[in-house]
Amino acid sequence: METAINIQNYLPHRAPMLMVDCILELDVESVTTRFKIKKDTIFVTKNVFIEAGLIENAAQTCSAIVGKKYFFEEDGTENEQVSVIGFISALKKVKIHSLPNVNQTITTKATLVSKFVGDDYTLCAMSCTIFLATTVLLECEMNLFIQKTITPKV
Length: 154
What we know:
- The protein is mainly beta and 154 residues long.
- It has one domain (5-150): Roll (Thiol Ester Dehydrase, Chain A), CATH 3.10.129.10.
- It has one helix and nine strands, in the order E-E-E-E-E-H-E-E-E-E.
- A hairpin with a 2-residue loop joins strand 8 (121-132) and strand 9 (135-150).
- It is globular.
């Protein structure tokens, strides 16, 4: 039995830039996500999910591990006054083997390689692989920078 977690609880991304539908598994060192490619997805060209879409999917999957730290208190309650900004600070060893088509569902698995936590930011190195069933579409390593920002009370 599979339990899916709403990715929007872990990322600031919203449509049309949200490239992950749900988290399938999440712990402190790894994450697995799923994404169904729709015709109106921003990175679809001629019914193919292009390279930029695969890389964005990988980045969003990887940042879910770090996002968890900022969006939830230690007791598990959601912190609604916190938001984050983040970006890929390095993309290394990228191998794109194939591109998926519209209406296909990809599964992305990422593993934390290293992490440095500052007062309100995190730098991390991640290893990531994207699959279409058992076929590997993309393999990469990336570094992410994620910083907490406080949303003022209104």
